Amino acid sequence: MAPVSLHSVKKAYGEVQILHGIDVDIADGEFIVLVGPSGCGKSTLLRMIAGLETITKGDIRIGDRVVNDLEPKDRDIAMVFQNYALYPHMTVATNMGFSLEHRGASKAEIAERVKWAADILDLSHLLDRYPRQLSGGQRQRVAMGRAIVRNPQVFLFDEPLSNLDAKLRVVMRGEIKALHHRLGVTTVYVTHDQIEAMTMADRIVVMHAGKVEQIGAPLELYDRPANLFVAGFIGSPAMNILGGTIAGAEFKAAGVTLPLPAGVTATGAASYGIRPEHFQLSPQGLPAVVSLVEPMGSETQVTMTLGEHVVTGVFRERVAARPGETIHILPDLAAVHLFDATTGQRIN
Amino acid sequence: MRTDLSPRLRVALYGLMCVLLIPFVFPTWWMITSSVKPISDIFAFPPDLWPRRFDFSTYQRVFELQPFARQYWNSAYIAAIVTAGTMVVSSMAGYAFARIKFPFSNAIFMIVLLGLLIPSEVTIVPLFQMFLGWGMINTHWPLILVPIFGAPSVFATFVMRQFFIALPGELEEAARVDGLGRFKIFWTIALPLAKPALGAVAIFTFLHSWNLYLEPIVFLSSTQMFTLPQALTQFTDAYGGAMWNIQLAAATMTAIPVLLVFIVAQKQFVEGLAHTGLKG
């Protein structure tokens, strides 16, 4: 186990700047998730930690060593790849013991470590099989087994669940988290799935266009997004964002005036953010015309037009309204987010 | 493979395949049956598809008229060395062109590919001069070195490159994380996975070397050094006329390894070319 520190890390391919100076400190044993849309640079950053990409500027430290110029094998890391990268011509046992074999471990030690990892991951009965004879979930576990067998200082996961179906993804999410609890190894996990990020991370690093938008605990990001990007990216269904103007204790958007929480001192153009579950049904509320009702069982998701804005509400109650009918909704003022219209930064 | 062809279409397809088989099967059949006919029966009219009389002494005569066993050995060992050498050179070169970034790699590969466009008849005289200078005329070295390092291995390099290009990059990256250097990645990961392509390279290299004709008649002059295709031209009578039945017996023995190799390895051959994207 070791902390990982990224200091002003930049990456450029020729003239094209991919990462614009990333600063992240990952504590020893922490599970950190890099999340962001496709092309934001999260996988590139992970590959730079692994040593599979060169670093244009800045420093990466693993433990107390600057690893910028070290080969991947000398960084004491293990990586789980998106497509698992299991060697097709080797059995599960050989795949898992391969790195130990090339580091000069004795046969007895390799067998012992492979058995240990296989027991943890419930792979003992599959050790003689080839990757082509395994299901997606089993391959995923073998890839993890290959990573843990060497007892590295850092685990790196590059979108490891993206090839699994939704049900298996939930199961494997739990297994990875349980494995982290058991082994306590510092883990950097890349995903574009914000549900994965929210459910697995100790802290999340939200990235966008080669920059870090916010770093924080999952609920911290959810409850207090630092800017419009994080507000829109974290949460499903996404936060409703309405453009308009702060005027005293009210927020004037196109076709609707929304109440503001007490103590808002900012004025002028801004964005008003409210999560779908923070709307309440109330006869005293604002009129909204229903366009779609999606009953989920435990809750009901309603798409509606509020003033000139299309918004989404999620209600614990069963909503009987039909498309075209009007319901009345009120925002929970304690859960209103305000963002500067120009910079997109949070202002309340 | 199951197909949903209608019976009529199936019959038509099989009929077409039978017609297409004729130009391939008939000469082989004619060669084998004529090799056991007395020479007077070969030119009988109408021709006999099945010999009226069998004369197996033709096979014995092949070995009496020429040092045929020695020539057989010459062809076999040259083909074996050329096959092994080409597999080594083309797999390493193909891997380098496919997976290693180095300056002008694409341009260099294009230049290498140009070797395919130059007919061997164009280079044979300069090669003769070169090997003459090295004292290698009437040795087997030109028949070994030219195919391994010259134009014939370019196609093999191309096949291997196409295979290695399709190899997932993550496998190499995983190997790097596992502690392997470039050569070990090639040797322990890439090469074992390239078996189908290597198989295809081995088959067509062996066939090419086995059937080589122009080079042996330029570089070799003593019958002890001859290879089989060259030896086949030597079965003539005192007046230079071909001893057809003996020549065809020799040809049958020459063709057997080729047929065996292809029958045994045709699946590998087709798979290998399919992996390289060369399949039509």
UniProtKB/TrEMBL annotation, chain B:
It comes from the Bacteria. The keyword Transport applies. Residues 72-265 form the ABC transmembrane type-1 domain. It holds the Pfam family BPD_transp_1. This is Sugar ABC transporter ATP-binding protein. Its main location: membrane. The lineage of its organism: Bacteria, Pseudomonadati, Pseudomonadota, Alphaproteobacteria, Hyphomicrobiales. The chain crosses the membrane at residues 12-32, 76-97, 109-132, 144-164, 185-207, 242-265. It is a multi-pass membrane protein. It comes from Devosia soli. Keywords: ATP-binding, Cell membrane, Membrane, Nucleotide-binding, Transmembrane, Transmembrane helix, Transport. SUPFAM superfamilies: MetI-like (SSF161098). InterPro entries: MetI-like, MetI-like_sf. Belongs to the binding-protein-dependent transport system permease family. Signal peptide: none annotated.
